[in-house]
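sanity check this fold:
=====
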Amino acid sequence: MTSITSQSKVIELVTEYGNRIWTDDNYRKRSMANAQRFADYSNYGQLPLTKFSPLHIINYQNHLRKSVSGSTVNRHSVTISSIFKFAYEMRLIKMPIPIKWMPEGKPRTFVFDDKTIVAMIAYLRKRGDDWMADMICVGANTGMRLGEVLKIGTEAELIKDKSGLKFVYLPETKNGDSRIIPLNKPAYDSVKQLQQSVGMFTPRKFRDRWALLKSHLRLGSGATYHALRHTAATRLVDKTNADALQVAAILGHRSIKTTKRYVHPDKAVLHNIVSSAAIS
């Protein structure tokens, strides 16, 4: 017989019934992580299901929006909505909690220039937050997602092939595929350091440091960690002339259409290309 009641906590509910709330294995895994992040905010993890109000959800959405895009906030909101809808259907709460969705606006196109990346890393190393500096270095050089970088030292494995080339192996990524990510020297050195720093970097600590970083360098609202993924893709095209298929393989995209949203060529680079093909 279940021990879940109207006085149960969010994590107790999803632990007991997560497989009923989210039937897809991969989607459930991401949703459970979102639920844990929701519970970790303020004292939400200690509140009974019946004590939540729309204002709790709005406060959490505003907290998330400080570090992620509106679309990401909405993905977390879908998780929250599913939890309270299930609680209502099970008659644990009297009414489902209405969710107000965040405006998503245009797709995120923020790209860090090289000078800003160097400044970010230098600021964090000066503070003694080397683990965070290494996370930024890995993101800018590989385009790895934050969730993937957080797996370094646990699920993500550092490997070498017979010729000595270095890679990170991810057994499972956002789309459910495994992925092998090539590492240049800065990225390899940072991955090695992160392997030795397991436990020092947590999602909550990361968010606190990122807020400090944005404030110190006066970075705009689009300056999220995910923007490093756009940055890596753009640098691969601008600096190495990598084609869309190659960039897609590095980022782990199944479709080149997705990759095109991540590449924002520098206007000067495009001008140089046209100039080099001049004819009269």
